[in-house]
Specification:
The complex is a heterodimer of chains A (76) and B (139). With 76 residues, chain A is mostly helical. Chain A is built from three helices and no strands. The relative contact order of chain A is 0.13. With 139 residues, chain B is mainly α. Chain B contains five helices and no strands. The chains are: A mainly alpha (76), B mainly alpha (139). Chains A and B meet through helix 1, helix 2 and helix 3 of A and helix 1, helix 2, helix 3, helix 4 and helix 5 of B.
């Protein structure tokens, strides 16, 4: 039964294995740190305090690259 | 057709288990003992690691989606109450951030993604090669 299941699903198992790797890589490529920095700068301009990121996000954001959002575009 | 029907009924965890089992089946066909087993085991470990990485990446993505959504909501609520010059200065930036947010976090058809498949790691190529071999044996 199990081997039959494997045989039937082989073409999809192949793309599943590849898909896991590629999806994970593409999600990791999203510049979360830059997005967070953009939001923080705009919030400051509006006089709002940016909420602290949730615990799972702290590590991601603290390890993120420095934001490339142009600082001078936010100059008052 | 049959494969598609089977896969529709499978959850991701079950698919993962089937990939693992398929690699073990292939290993057994190559021989119950031999030099291929360390490679098979290492391939399985790497596939499992990819799965763990994907679960973490999805969790981070969802957290970030909620985190940014809350900030955008707060900013868009406050903006109309701000002085006109602040609205003129901040409005376009907020609009840009909203557009970026929608682009990154909206559901999209996976078939429409452009995925750079160059530089796939060896364990993926090896898995595909082994599964192709099983498929040809069963054809």
């Amino acid at each position: 039964m199990r081997e039959r299941e494997i045989t039937d699903a082989l073409p999809l198992l192949r793309s599943f294995a590849r898909g896991n790797h590629l999806t994970s890589a593409s999600l990791k490529a999203i510049p979360y740190g830059e997005l967070d920095e953009m939001a923080r700068l705009i919030m400051e301009e509006l006089g709002l305090k940016a909420p602290a990121p949730s615990r799972p996000l702290v590590r991601t954001l603290s390890g993120a690259k420095k934001a490339r959002f142009p600082q001078n575009s936010l100059a008052k | 057709m049959q494969a598609r029907k089977v896969a529709c009924d499978l959850k991701e965890e079950e698919m993962l288990q089937l990939v693992r089992n398929a690699l073990i089946v292939a290993g057994n066909r190559m021989g119950p003992s031999g030099d291929h087993w360390p490679v098979i085991k290492s391939t399985i470990r790497s596939i499992m690691k990819d799965w763990e990485n994907l679960k973490i990446a999805r969790a981070v993505h969802n957290e970030m989606k909620n985190h940014l959504y809350r900030q955008l909501e707060a900013m868009e609520k406050v903006l109309p109450e701000c002085p006109r010059e602040v609205q003129a200065n901040v409005g376009p930036k907020l609009k840009e951030l909203r557009e970026i947010y929608e682009a990154y976090f909206s559901e999209a058809d996976p078939d429409s993604y452009y995925v750079d498949e160059t530089g796939l790691p060896a364990h993926i190529l090896r898995t595909e090669f082994i599964l192709d071999g099983l498929e040809m044996e069963n054809a």
